[in-house]
C-alpha cells in the first residue's frame, strides 16, 4: 500500500480523465476531505476538460465528502467506491448519477505510473 497526500492525487485529476471514454461530463464537483491532511477542492468539468482549484463553490452539482485517508484510497484505486459508499466512508450530496460517472471516467486507478511518481508521505 502506498501513502500519498490527497493534494498529490487531486493534482493528478485534470490529466487523469480518460480521453477515450464515451461519457461526457459537465459539472461542478466539490470535494471535502476531512481529518488530518484534509482540504476542500472544486473540480469543474466541461466536455471532459477539467480544472481543479482549492476552495469552495457556492452551488456545486455534487459534494463528495470523505476522510482524507478514505478519499486517497478511493482515488488511487486501492479501494472500491461502491464498497466505501456502502460502508458509509464516502458521502454524496447531489446527483448520484454524476457521482457514478465521475468514478467511471477518471483513470487514476489505471494510471499507476502517475501515482507512483507522486511524492510519498513518510
Question: What would you say about this model in short?
Answer:
30% of the residues lie in helices and 28% in strands.
Can you characterise this structure?
This protein is α+β, with helices and mostly antiparallel strands and 122 residues long. The chain has a single domain (6-109), classed as SCP2 sterol-binding domain (Nonspecific Lipid-transfer Protein, Chain A, 2-Layer Sandwich), CATH 3.30.1050.10. 30% of the residues lie in helices and 28% in strands. It contains five helices and five strands, in the order H-E-E-E-E-H-H-E-H-H. Strands 3-2-1-4-5 form a five-stranded mixed sheet. The chain is globular. 27% of the residues are buried.
Keywords:
about 120 residues, alpha+beta, Nonspecific Lipid-transfer Protein, Chain A
Looking at this structure, what is the CATH superfamily?
SCP2 sterol-binding domain
Number of helices: 5
Quote the distance from N terminus to C terminus: 13 Å
Say how many strands there are.
5
Low-pLDDT sequence parts: none
Please state the structural category. alpha+beta
Placed side by side, the strands forming the largest sheet appear as 3-2-1-4-5
**Strand content of the residues, in percent?**
25-35%
- Helix-residue proportion: 25-40%
CATH topology: Nonspecific Lipid-transfer Protein, Chain A
Integer-rounded radius of gyration = 13 Å
Coarse shape: globular
Helix-strand blueprint:
Elements: H1 6-12, E1 26-34, E2 39-46, E3 49-54, E4 62-67, H2 68-75, H3 81-86, E5 90-94, H4 96-105, H5 112-117
